[in-house]
Amino acid sequence: MELVILVILVALIEYMVFAGLVGRARARHAVLAPAMTGHPEFERANRVHQNTLEALIVFIPAVLTFGCYLSARWAAGLGVLFIVARAIYALSYFRDPAKRGVGAGLTGVTNVVLVLGGIVGIVRQLL
């Protein structure tokens, strides 16, 4: 399970980097708090950050459950895929929000596999 925990921590570091990008864009374009709109660069950074938070809410319990009840190695591998998917999403969104589909899709598929795998693992344990 150590690999799973390590992957979660790396995903959280990625999230903190995205938070830093929001702060940098806020300062660069003088988007004063509490404003959530302003320069398009700020809005893109903010949306990447918020969307990643939305994905992490599913990812963290799902990867832990999958790792505990099905396979820690597979959970860690899927966790790395999640991290890569979020990076793809961010880079795509910063360039052109309309082209975020690959990263968003990989994130969604990864989370679905983790949730379903966790359910399968728990049901197998109960039987």
List keywords for this structure.
single chain; 127 residues; mainly alpha; Four Helix Bundle (Hemerythrin (Met), subunit A); elongated
Q: Please indicate the percent range of residues in DSSP E strands (runs of 2 or more).
A: under 5%
CATH topology: Four Helix Bundle (Hemerythrin (Met), subunit A)
CATH class: Mainly Alpha
What would you call the shape?
elongated
Give the terminus-to-terminus CA distance.
23 Å
Radius of gyration: 16 Å
How many DSSP E strands? 0
Tally of helical segments: 4
Strand count, sense and barrel status of the largest sheet are: none
The CATH homology group name: Membrane associated eicosanoid/glutathione metabolism-like domain
Helix content: over 70%
Task: Give a written overview of the molecule.
By secondary structure, the protein is an all-alpha fold. It has a single domain, classed as Membrane associated eicosanoid/glutathione metabolism-like domain (Four Helix Bundle (Hemerythrin (Met), subunit A), Up-down Bundle), CATH 1.20.120.550. The chain contains four helices and no strands. It has helices spanning 2-28, 40-69, 72-95, 101-126. α1 (2-28) packs antiparallel against α2, α2 runs parallel beside α4 and α3 (72-95) packs antiparallel against α4. The longest helix is centred in the middle third of the chain and has 30 residues, at 40-69. It is elongated.
